[in-house]
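User: What would this chain look like folded?
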Amino acid sequence: MTIRFNRLARRFAAVVAVLAAGSAQAAITIDLSYVDTQGSAYTRFRNWVNQAVAGNPGYEFSATDAAMMARISGQANYCTLAVSMIETQVATAEARIAAGQNPAVASDSYLQAGPMIGDLALTYDWCAAQVSASQRTRWAAYAERTIANIWTPAQAQWGGRAASWSGWGTNDPANNYYYSFLRATMYWALASNSSTWMAFLQSQKLPPLQAYFALLVGGGSEEGTGYGTSHHKLFELYRVWRDSTGTNLATASPHLTDTISYWLHATVPTLNRFAPYGDQARNSNPEFYDYHRHLLLEARRMTGDAVARDLASWWLGNSSVPQMTSGFNLRDDLLPAGTAPAQAGGGAPLTYVASGIGHLFTRTAWNPAATWLTFSAGSYDQSHAHQDQGSFTLFSGNWLAVTENIWSHSGIQNGTEVHNLVRFVRNNANVRQREGTRSTMTVHQLGPAAGEVHVSGDLTAAYTAGAGVTAWTRRLDFTGSKLVVSDQFAVLSGTRAIFQLNTPVQPVVNGNEATAGSLKVRVLEPTQATLRVIDWRTQGSDFASGWKLEIEGAATNTGFIVELTTGEQIFKGSFESP
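Assistant: Here's the prediction, encoded as structure tokens.
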């Protein structure tokens, strides 16, 4: 009882300190009652901020870190640091503007406007007592100009000098830039009590966001799993907006709650990697990082679904990132992870379909030794997404067949040549899958065997009419001991079809068979197939390792039957009819 009373007393003291500082009611309201000031996460965060106060800020330390510590503790020295940092940001921007240059906030199409103006707004509001009248005027002018420039790119200007820009992402709620722009606008609108920007958000920017995510049944992101982690900041905005205005954007659609299940199933059985959909620019190898943890923490905090909350807790308690690894993410770890259910996988089913984006996941069990499969047939509508419609990934203890992109240095190899699909070639050039298209996925049956799934995809829409591909369908029949991948296609004369399998180890060919580590491959049709092995290191300096097995038949070939075996499990590909 004494401990609980002391916690309440400290929180009350913090509130009193803020009121005494002159902020009768913060416009940016974030309910921090979840912070356990006796926990290790708080200790780590406090030490991180104290290090900065002592004059040794860590990499990417932010004014938000300092302002939040001030709000939690009620200690003014943290605000002193936050104000100093924002004054440096604004003064540096003013100097660049006076020199006829764009400030740093405008770089990379205003991508960093969210964190930069967010820092300013939180400090402007929560540390108001230490922000002078002249600073408030200057900071406000800088913030207003930044946000106006974002949303009216053709009229953008700095210091009266025209500074138009592309407007990239300003009207695309699927794009990670959009979330950064929302952050800047939302935080500043709340901090400045701007009825103009509040009305702008409520009438023009939040409705398209809500309408878009209502379409993404099953969760996830059309940008893939790399850039899709940007939802960790989007879900944080949901929380700030709810706490500040009472409007809960998270309940406008099932997307946030569904995304918990999406990431649970997109996680491989060993719980340390994930399905590598789309660009993987931060790390080509799809290993978990703080951003994934933050995403699940925010989703858990905002969902109203108790089952989903438990699933998030299970992932948070069992993944390879049990706590934040980078100092600048420590404040996110203050969110509670909850108690992980004892049941494997949190009791989730073995198969999951995110129909909105067109991803299917299945596994034979919720244990590290399970076999895991994912299949793509859905939307291809974002620049960070890949030409991977019809591709599959296979994992059992490690990658068996996976996109070559994860062994590239850049992590942005997006062509059909790097994915496990049928690649079509015309006039010695790969036939591209085109953006702005939607392939279709049909689930025919689930169960009764562990992870059993029967699904088909029509990938025809991914190709431009007349480009060489008239039709392509692929069906997967997975029973836990066998996977049958059924490929049928029709092409224009002169178009080649090549069955591709990208592997981490070198395939060794022997007639119509090949072995790649524990994976065995046997070509059943076409009977006169040619098997070739490609060393990806010979295909360009961007490729660090990896191999590809290509299987090709005669010009008249319209399908493949390829049998893949690993251990006791058999995986078979064919052109059986759906």
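The chain is about 35% helix and 20% strand. If you want, I can go into more detail on any region.
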